[in-house]
Here is the input.
Amino acid sequence: MEPRIQYAKTSDGVNIAFFTEGEGMPFVNVPGAPMSNVQRQRKMPRLREALAFAAARYKLVAFDRRGFGHSQRDVDDFSLDKLLLDVEAVVDHLALETFALFAPILAGPIGIAYAARHPDRVSHLVLMNSFASGAAFWQSPRTRAFRALRESDWDTYTEAMARFVFDDPAEGAGFFRESATPENARKFMDATELFDASGLLPEVKCPTLVIHLAEELIDPGADEIRRLAAGITGASLGVVSDVASMLQAVETFLAGEQAAPAAASVEASAVRTILFTDVEGSTALTQRLGDAKAREVLREHERTVRGALAAHGGSEVKAMGDGFMASFGSAARALECAVAIQRAFVEWNAGVGARHASPLQVRIGLNAGEPIAEEDPSGRGDLFGTAVIAAARIAAQAQGGEILVSDVVRQLVAGKGFLFASRGKTALRGFDDPVEVYEVRWQEEEG
Here is the structure.
């Protein structure tokens, strides 16, 4: 049974169509696609999966922006300030005190502006394939091509969009017809080029996850996504390849922020996979670039690792200046996270000279076992024991760009599609017996 469409009136008198579904933490979805129709969007495969996922875990709130779908159509002002009124009308009508805000693609500036102006109401902000500056967003090769098609031939544009997002092109054509008039659609997308929430990025104080769903129809590019994440203090950056991974990243992000503090008592944990990262040559990097520029480069390591942890279900145990220690309940997800980190740095290094000051070469090591969990003197949860020490020693054996694992990890992920090459028995400092270490052939696994 489809949820009932309701209406909220904005402060400037526009009726906004919305629905709610599910129970729990309010999760407000700001429409970010070029078209919006809350009733027909359930027939879009990509959106259907996302909506069902959200409604099963949270109180999903979805609405049509003004001029689209079932909202009032006779409007012609799609400025950022006007679209913010749509969000305000819906959340105020529902009397939501706090809520998570999901602002994908063209809705990014709306989410940023609302979170900055209402820090007491937005508990979490998720931005996917989005931007702060519309002028910068529409300059990527993919978005320029998208805009050119829209401007040259509206019918061809809608047909191409329908084939991309719908299993049934006829269903897609109906969605576009019932979403907006060509005039309103053009006015809205033209308005997005004038959106600029760049000055508000430092004012976003809530936990923020910036997701790059690569190779989507509307993809602003990795550099624009990184700039967005860099502008928000403490934001995590997640790079994912499909909708399922994106949804997992969102769930992990929301659950992580709500997780209860670690127990104060010392206790033995279940089997965990421990991951260490370490930036190769970080001291030389500082000497070469100076403190300020080196810190900018190291911040990229922090954003990338934290984003990968959020996307793959990892828990950050501690950051150590030029490295991280993290814990996973799944060895496979830990390895997937390690591979995602190395791939992200390959992409980063490709931009050195033109866009970045210095390459980043990161060592990664993993081991699995039953660490001891307890609070450290500052009250933060920490992990100790042989399993942790071995993971750190294995990471120290790696070269920049390598992932090394213990035989325990290799056996735990048997049959999961990972490729390994034995590095033989390796003497680890502090261990009496040599340990069998394997290199993950992640570049071969990619191709």
Observations:
- The chain has two domains: 6-255, 262-446.
- The radius of gyration is 23 Å.
